[in-house]
Amino acid sequence: MPRESRPALPVSLSPLTPPDWLVRSLKPQSAPIPWAAVARASVAMALPLALGILAGQPSYGALASMGALSGVIGDTADAYRMRIFNIAVPQLFGALGVTLGSLVFGHGWVAVGAVTFVALVSGMMSTIGAVASVSGLLLLLNCVVGAGLPMPGQWWLAPLLMTGGGLLVLTLALLAWPLRSGVPERAAVAASYRSVAALLDAAGTDTYDEARTAVTASLNQSYDLVLARRTRDHGRNAELVRLVAQLNALTPVIEAAPAADQAARHACVRLPPEVPAAVRALADAVERGETPRTEPAEAPARAAARIPEPQDHAARALDHAVLHAAETLADPDPLGVIGTDDRLGRPAALRVRARRAARNVVLSGASWRYGLRLALCIGLAQSLVSIIDVPRSYWVALTVTFVLKPDFGSVFSRAVLRALGTAAGLVVAAAVLAEVPHGWWDVPVMMVLAPLIPALTTRGYGYQTAAITPVILLLSDILNHQGLGLVVPRLVDSLIGCGITLVAGYLLWPESWGTRIGDRLADAVADTARYVECAFGDGDAAARARMRRGLYRDLSVIRSEFQRALTEPPPTGTRAAAWWPLVVAVERILDATTAARVRIRHGAEPPTPSEVAEVARELHGLAARLRTSVTLEKGHADFTDDAQDSVLEPLRQEVSAARAVASPQGGQKGRGELRNSTAG
């Protein structure tokens, strides 16, 4: 029977226990500490302060440190070329933002209108992608700061200093590039190989689904790194061609993994440990960048050759796939595998994608809706502080900007976490402002506080807020010398900003608290039906590979959306929890389809066209039902052909399970187990 897989959902046991969505939001995420980024943050934010004090202009040093703070927040990429985009591009928009803000400082309602317009542009930019989102964030943040704080010196000095601080972070991040060029990309590809080895280890166990999700995430990261670099390198770069070929060589191994899982689960035929060991040997070779010209490069092929003789379809498929990967790594001429170069699709040139993104933003209803939401909240914040005397009122709009980022997570939970994180950060800030005198003591304090930002960012938004708050207050105090007088107003401003966001940016927009879960799943199910039709037809193998990768990537995005929805308060969070098993069921349908295709390729009897059409019809019917459902409705698969020995039988079982999940009666077992898991 198909396995049940659901996220662990803690439940309140007493009236004094925090609600489930808050517990999930506050739970620290498990992630390694980026020690290199921690060291860069310490140097990049303390050095400008030291130079400013040395020059007798501590306010200049504080502005440069503010720019460095933006660079530290954006310092998240592994590949060096991506660091340029992640740090430098947002800095340019940040410089533009502080310039616009400075020009309208003190101009009353003109400043309100200007900042509101910038908020509209910033919100629309945020729908393009990750770099554009951070760029839009800095554009608005710095505009708010420029419009709310008097900047020292000429109008051009503040953007120059802040940009210089951000570029200092970039310079420190690129210091090792000449010595480690290509290392992050190779490490990412090697990590994908290791995740596939872990997937093979998990075949036939209850951890298989989790391992498969990890493979999808790892492949997404690797392809993003390699192909993003490739779009800027239009020549036949041997290193890039080799990396793309190595990633593509993983495709047959991943396709064979579901067949191995089925064999281990239903026929009790476990994979020999030599198979994942061979894949790990390939991963080591990729990470070291070995070539056939060096003696150790022959080791992967030898390791693969020691795989025991295959005994069934799944073992034969894996045997061929691993040997193919070993041969790809051992190819002395990377251009010799150029035929596989475009198997998963060559990305468009950067200028083409930029033009396409700009057109989509202008014509997208979602882009305009988010831009208008952000502009409304910023306009209300700016208008409120213009009418009511709020000291250093720019903090209200800053809070709105940080919280109202749906692409960063749930707006509701971010508002709550922002308030809690600010309160925690203010405790640290109060101690610093009360006990640390201005001057050279600011430098060691900054060296201690700044590294907490990248260290705690990986733990969650609330923890990041708690780390950023004392840093911003210390820099603000250097600029305006208010001392402890900053603490209470900042807490009040944060609460006002969170309140504006919750009312004007969340409750007034039904799409914020009523996620379109059914539509997203329906699209995925319909695409899965088309993949089934393609997998057992006469289509091109490369087209099938692209379709399968695209489906897994889409399901990864849907998983992320569900994780965001789970942090929402009822009814959104509880509804997402009820629909979660169907997401897992769709992933298993993909696995079963791929496994059937692999078995056919290695000798199994292919299905008849009517069998394929029947499965596709059931999936299209499920998609149609989901489009018209707000809650899960009753449904069951109606297969007329009852051939138990068909290669599609495991696939039909998974489709039947998916139809059973999407029903209040037939899915009672899964739903009951879900309730039991939440109660535990």
Automatic annotation (TrEMBL):
<feature type="compositionally biased region" description="Basic and acidic residues">
    <location>
        <begin position="286"/>
        <end position="296"/>
    </location>
</feature>
<keyword id="KW-0472">Membrane</keyword>
<dbReference type="InterPro" id="IPR049453">
    <property type="entry name" value="Memb_transporter_dom"/>
</dbReference>
<feature type="transmembrane region" description="Helical">
    <location>
        <begin position="155"/>
        <end position="177"/>
    </location>
</feature>
<keyword id="KW-1003">Cell membrane</keyword>
<protein>
    <recommendedName>
        <fullName>Integral membrane bound transporter domain-containing protein</fullName>
    </recommendedName>
</protein>
<feature type="region of interest" description="Disordered">
    <location>
        <begin position="656"/>
        <end position="680"/>
    </location>
</feature>
<dbReference type="Pfam" id="PF13515">
    <property type="entry name" value="FUSC_2"/>
</dbReference>
<feature type="region of interest" description="Disordered">
    <location>
        <begin position="286"/>
        <end position="305"/>
    </location>
</feature>
<feature type="domain" description="Integral membrane bound transporter">
    <location>
        <begin position="383"/>
        <end position="503"/>
    </location>
</feature>
<feature type="transmembrane region" description="Helical">
    <location>
        <begin position="92"/>
        <end position="121"/>
    </location>
</feature>
<comment type="similarity">
    <text>Belongs to the YccS/YhfK family.</text>
</comment>
<dbReference type="GO" id="GO:0005886">
    <property type="term" value="C:plasma membrane"/>
</dbReference>
<keyword id="KW-0812">Transmembrane</keyword>
<keyword id="KW-1133">Transmembrane helix</keyword>
<feature type="transmembrane region" description="Helical">
    <location>
        <begin position="128"/>
        <end position="149"/>
    </location>
</feature>
